[in-house]
Specification:
mainly alpha, about 0% strand
């Protein structure tokens, strides 16, 4: 679907705000980008590749910022990632039928809305004791979902690490950002094999999320999250998710 001039500019502002909010907690914002593109009426194949590209940019910035602050843990990171990479690549190669893609992404957006609305920095003290087999299985599942939908998986991994007591919140944010980065790269490589083109407005959107990612990751490292703003974004995600599931076009 072709966009008018106003639509890419409006999406740039939405992408910027999404990058700020998500990168502050170690995520890259794919669910927010997908929500904005859903409301703008973009085609599924454009949504997927664009979300993966923007994810890579923001996740790279967040990974660097949180790692530099000393929160990254290789022993926690690698078990999830080694299994997720091949599945993210395969998922990126697969092209789901439009209706199925819309329902799948709609469900993910609703979960993301729930996750953001009830987000809290409080969690169990991180023990770092992650069962290897469980981490491999979870990583494979998250990688496949990442490649199929264009969502890097951080929205699932971050709360999982905290709830299970495997990582403290800031450490979880660092691991999640790196996880999103590698899975988004793998997913986009697979999507490139499927010959999905990026929209012409992509450079403008990349610039918007670079600025947003820098601002958000800095806020996250200093623990300056805004709960009210995340809950407002959660409402937008829920609306977009319901639109994908319920509205047929």
């Amino acid at each position: 679907m072709a966009l008018s001039l106003a639509d890419p500019i409006l999406l740039s502002f939405l992408f910027f705000a999404t990058a700020v909010l998500y990168s502050s907690v170690g995520n890259a914002g794919a669910s927010g980008y997908l929500a904005a593109m859903t409301l703008a009426g973009l085609a599924p194949e454009v949504m997927k590749s664009t979300a993966l590209l923007l994810n890579i940019i923001v996740a790279l910035i967040a990974t660097f910022r949180f790692a530099r602050a000393g929160y990254f843990s290789w022993p926690l990171f690698w078990p999830f990632t080694v299994a997720s990479l091949p599945f993210a690549f395969v998922g990126g190669m697969l092209s789901l039928p439009g209706p199925l893609y819309r329902v799948l992404v709609g469900i993910v957006l609703l979960f993301a809305a729930y996750r953001l609305f009830w987000y809290t920095d409080q969690g169990k003290p991180g023990t770092g004791a992650v069962p290897l087999v469980l981490a491999l299985v979870m990583g494979a599942g998250l990688g496949l979902v990442s490649g199929l939908t264009g969502i890097g998986g951080g929205i699932f991994l971050s709360p999982l690490l905290i709830v299970m007591g495997w990582a403290e919140p800031r450490q979880s944010a660092s691991i999640s950002a790196a996880f999103v980065l590698v899975n988004s790269v793998a997913g986009l490589c697979g999507d490139t094999v499927s010959v999905h083109a990026l929209p012409s407005a992509a450079p403008l959107w990349v610039g918007a999320v670079v600025v947003g990612g820098l601002a958000g990751s800095e806020l996250g490292a200093r623990q300056l999250a805004e709960v009210a703003l995340r809950r407002l974004l959660a409402v937008v995600l829920a609306i977009a998710g319901l639109k994908l599931i319920l509205v047929r076009r």
